[in-house]
Amino acid sequence: MKILVTYDMFREGFTELESKYEVTFPEGRDFTYEEVYEMIPEYDVLCSMFDFPVNKELIDHAPKLRLIANYAVGYNNIDVAYAIEKGLTVANTPDPVTAPTANIALGLLLDAARRITECDRKLRTLGKKMKVGVLENLGAPVTGQTLGIIGMGRIGKALAKRANAMGMEVIYHNRHQLYIEEETKLNVTYVTKEVLLAKADFVSLNAPYTPETYHIIGEEELRRMKRSAILINTARGPLVDEHALVKALREGEIRAAGLDVFEFGDYPLPELLELDNVVLTPHIGTQTLETRVIMAKAVCDNVIGFLEGDRPVSRVLRP
Ligand code: GLV
């Protein structure tokens, strides 16, 4: 049984897998698509990273492949429909991703609301020329305000709990409304997307990237939001029309934004770097040493569970 890992990763999470099977890793960098394409015909299992494209071409070049184990909760990098049609299993790692991503969403929310990074940057760059004083650098209070969560899966729910703890009201929009018991437990209220956009002081995107969620926040949605609203995106970049967001932030159509993901790859549009009312982080939602290792363990559990049937596999059942 041969296992190919596309990404450079701490080996700690992989010890059990390496003790049982032949595992190929890149050294000091990720494998390129071309390298993986060359190697894949020999492999039974592919462990891919969330930004590595597992497309039709690659799947068609992998006659032995049985499992694609993604290092991520998101799987928009994989042609899941085609993989399933070809009889492959696709797996992901939801559990270890939930809390760290909810934490980074909360961090961006607080930072954008209270202008933490902006103040830090101004102190460093302007020094004593920075305007300070009790009437300067006013932010949004957070407590007592309304958070609108679009996408009420595991991460949305984890964020709702955190927001509740801070005294926020939480409304949400999702493909399916939660059962009333769960809504009551989470203290959240289901609303339409239109109501959410009109009512929320903060809009957080926690939905997967699918054709339905592409540009779920575009020019029209930004116009519907309050002028005092703050947008948080820790899901996937293309959920937001980034050009429209630049315009909205520039023209004060919304107050601010906090982004951990960008529409066009690893970096934001250069125009965003010019704006003070946006906090930017480079997809660090799960970027802690501990999370890196437990995500690797979750990948290995999926692989070993699939091959040996001795533990549950987090299977992706549909695109
Ligand atoms: C990270 O972006 C993930 O999907 O786990």
Helices, strands, pairings?
Layout: E1 2-5, H1 15-20, E2 22-24, H2 33-39, E3 45-49, H3 56-60, E4 67-71, H4 80-85, E5 89-91, H5 94-114, H6 116-126, E6 146-150, H7 154-165, E7 169-173, H8 180-186, E8 188-190, H9 193-199, E9 202-205, H10 219-224, E10 230-233, H11 242-250, E11 256-259, H12 270-273, E12 278-280, H13 289-308
Parallel strand pairs: 1-2, 1-3, 3-4, 4-5, 6-7, 6-9, 7-8, 9-10, 10-11, 11-12
Helix pairs in contact: 5-7, 5-13
This protein binds glyoxylic acid.
| Rg over C-alpha atoms, rounded to the nearest angstrom | 21 Å
Principal-axis shape: globular
Oligomer: single chain
Secondary structure tally: strands: 12
Please state roughly what percent of the residues sit in beta strands, choosing from under 5%, 5-15%, 15-25%, 25-35%, 35-45% or over 45%. Answer: 15-25%
Ions, cofactors and other bound molecules: glyoxylic acid
The parts where pLDDT drops under 50 for at least 5 residues are: none
Q: Which structural class matches the secondary elements? A: alpha/beta
Q: How far apart are the first and last residues' alpha carbons, in Å?
A: 27 Å
Largest beta sheet: strand ordering: 8-7-6-9-10-11-12
Can you characterise this structure?
This protein has 319 residues and is an alpha/beta fold. The chain is 38% helix and 15% strand. It contains 13 helices and 12 strands. The chain has helices at 15-20, 33-39, 56-60, 80-85, 94-114, 116-126, 154-165, 180-186, 193-199, 219-224, 242-250, 270-273, 289-308, and strands at residues 2-5, 22-24, 45-49, 67-71, 89-91, 146-150, 169-173, 188-190, 202-205, 230-233, 256-259, 278-280. The strands form 2 sheets. It has a 7-stranded parallel beta sheet, with helices on both faces. It has a 5-stranded parallel beta sheet with strand order 2-1-3-4-5. Helix 5 crosses helix 7 (154-165) and helix 5 packs antiparallel against helix 13. It starts with a strand and ends in an 11-residue tail after the last helix. The mean pLDDT is 98. Bound molecules: glyoxylic acid. One of its GO terms (biological process) is amino acid biosynthetic process. This is 2-hydroxyacid dehydrogenase family protein. InterPro entries: D-2-hydroxyacid_DH, D-isomer_2_OHA_DH_cat_dom, D-isomer_DH_CS, D-isomer_DH_CS1, D-isomer_DH_NAD-bd, NAD(P)-bd_dom_sf.
